[in-house]
Specification:
The structure is a single chain. The protein is mainly α. Helix content is 47%, strand content 11%. It contains four helices and four strands; from the N terminus they run H-H-E-E-E-E-H-H. The strands form two sheets. It has a two-stranded antiparallel ribbon. A hairpin with a 2-residue loop joins strand 3 and strand 4. Helix 1 runs antiparallel to helix 2 and helix 3 packs across helix 4. The two termini are 16 Å apart.
Amino acid sequence: MDLTAHVNHLGRELATIAEANGDEARAVVERLSGSLDSAIRMTLLDALSAAADEITREMAPGSAELRLRGRDPYFVVTAPPTVPTGTTTDEGPVAADGNALLTEDGPSSRINVRLPEQLKAAVEEAAAKEGRSVNAWLVRAASSALRRTDRPTEPRTGGQRSQQSFTGWVH
């Protein structure tokens, strides 16, 4: 995705605003145009990255990543894993689209869960950010976790384990 057209468009809009405010304002915009180009580009990248994160939350266990090739961002979309139609998994029968029939709809049953206070607060915050009730958020999270087949299960052992993961931008 070439951001140049978007950056240039915003630059033209700023120049138009400056024109309406006189020669002094136009001169300021002209002096700042080089710095504004970088700031605008970084702001657009931040917006695209936030959009990719939001899309990933909605399509879990699939994902959308924003990557950078040179100065140009591009998206990498990973679809949720599927299994052949007509089979049965540990999660139950498989739908025509290949996904296990774990849904947020249908008959429900009650379960009491005790959560540490900090986890409860984090769940409430995450649900609010997505505009969902805590119950709907927990159902979606549990359903997504059960659909994940890309992570092998590891036996739990005593002691502490640490895992380092690095994400970010390199330019």
